[in-house]
Automatic annotation (TrEMBL):
Domain called 3-hydroxyisobutyrate dehydrogenase-like NAD-binding: residue spans: 168-287
Organism lineage string: Bacteria, Pseudomonadati, Pseudomonadota, Alphaproteobacteria, Hyphomicrobiales
The organism of origin for this protein: Rhizobium lemnae
Catalytic function, reaction form: L-threonate + NAD(+) = 2-dehydro-L-erythronate + NADH + H(+)
Domain (6-phosphogluconate dehydrogenase NADP-binding): residue spans on this chain: 8-164
Family, similarity comment: Belongs to the HIBADH-related family. L-threonate dehydrogenase subfamily.
Name of the protein this chain belongs to: L-threonate dehydrogenase
Amino acid sequence: MTRQVTATVIGLGSMGWGAALSLLRAGFDVKGVDIRSDVLASFEKEGGKAYPDAASTGESDVVFVFVVNSRQAEEVLFGERGALKSAKAGTVFLLCVTMAPSATMELAERLSSAGMQVIDAPVSGGHIKALAGEITVMASGPDQAFDHAALALDAVSAKVFRLGSEVGLGSKVKMINQLLAGVHIAATAEALTLAAAEGLDLQTVFDVIRVSAGSSWMFENRGPHIVDGDYTPRSAVNIFVKDLGIVTSEADKAGASTPLSAAALALFKEAAESGLGLEDDAAVAKILAERASIKLPGMEG
């Protein structure tokens, strides 16, 4: 870069943290925003600048928003300590939050009315790819915004799909991705729970299916969590309660039938209501195991 470009990353969770570190490696001046003091301390050790709220960051060239939902996005953008308090006109905001397309479009309209540029930029790939700067971005927005954010997008991603100039297209494609992701996690849990009920060795089953026709990215990624009984949250059950809720709600509006999504959503909701909401999303397997009166690795008793 001919000059050091300033990037703010709001939300240093698994994806935002990886994006922020990738921007640092690429030579950006990176400001990280999070409500957790321990995360901010860790970010400073990595060479970033840490802030407890977006208003404190001052001006940046690009702002990535990696919070959990549309309510949080609205707060960090337009709230009393939101990013618009200090953003300069023309700043490019990349909305990386998984939201209903209608929510994305509403926030984008408000940002545009305030003189900002907006890219609808939900992401996928998980925390490992985020750390490597290899996430997939499903993006839509004006060409000028893409031109201004090109270096930043290159730093965090392996692939940017430019889906058109209309904000909302990115969120619609991400919704389809989350439909498949949620259903595949539920299917992984169902398959490995059945394997356990049949007395099969879970590691052996995983090794076989991983290289067979029944595999999926989610099976390969979440299967080891169930096999090892490790439900440390990389992506929590509550995330898919939200995301599959978006899928089924938007499907109803569109007149589309999503029975598999509805079944998976019911399983995630049951897991959340059973106190597993903050565990890894693969913990839905525990619900199926309890129904079958079996114990998976990591389950007490």
